Amino acid sequence: MDKYNESILLKIGILINTIFLVVIMCIYTGVKFNFDNIFESKKSKNQDNLNIIQDGNNVFTNDIKTVNAEIEGSVECNLPGGVQKENCSIQKDIFHKKIVIAFPKGISGYEQDNIVNTYAAVKNIDINISDVMVKVEISLNSIRDCNVEFSDGKIRLDFFNPINVDMPVIVVDAGHGGDDVGAIERGTYEKNINLTVCERLKEILDNDDKILVYYTREDDTYPSVEERIDFVNELMPDLFISIHSNWYEHSDISGTSVLYNVKDSSEFGSEWLSNIMCQEVIKTCNTNDRGVVDGHDIHIVRNSKVPVALIEMGFMSNEEDFSLLTGNAGQIKLANGIYNGIIRSLTELGKY
Asked: CATH number of the domain at 167-348, out of 3.40.630.40, 1.10.10.10, 2.50.20.20, 3.40.190.10?
């Protein structure tokens, strides 16, 4: 082979090698880049979910009160290795007879046999596993609450019947919800006012360790009136408080009224409770006193087996009342007035 051909072949060889190296580098870089992106995406997804769990940890440490009660049975969840208390979230949905535990999946995954149930009232246990999280949903046959214990890589739920606790029990109901918006004034729905005042009240009650409180709704959902009163009559709390806002076609009508169950003629019954709630809300919020009213037409009032007070806090149709009902300061006042009524009632019952 002459030198000319050798030179041509050498150049071709160099060119082929160069192209080959470039292709290899591109492939390698592309694959590495893609994997890096996937890894970063997975890492971010993991971190987001962990943040959600950690944000929800207040449910575990602050909102769940330990109650001195006779324990009927337990459910114990073994956590994946490395998962700490601060990574876990507990949601107690007593109204729907359900407890939800959420925590990171960990490296080894999660199996059904990691859960030990010794409680006959457990209807079902569902485990849902995503890429990064485990959600354990415990459904119950009847209304039960639980104390929560975290130790040695385990979460234990100790179940008890709220009827048997040595402390007062109340139910708070935020009226309407979901598709049932209630009264409407200037684009504002009654359901939202009721829920917000209920949330302000919950903030106060959460800091009172002497009372056990349950709620018919804590978000924009609509439990039917039948479901609400069935819950109350099964639980049999000491007091049942329902929060509402009024409306009338004439804007000059204002003030607070409370509906009571006329069938309840007991000394410490619905009328007694309603009078106290009316007085305390008026005293705190300086609203007009419209007194207590026959609430027989209202399903949850006439069918309640416990002392019930349905509070019409004020009139959305009245300028001054509307400001009270929708303003942050007014909603806090209303919550404090309702709380004062609860404390006074429980004190008169000798339970606080």
From this structure: 3.40.630.40
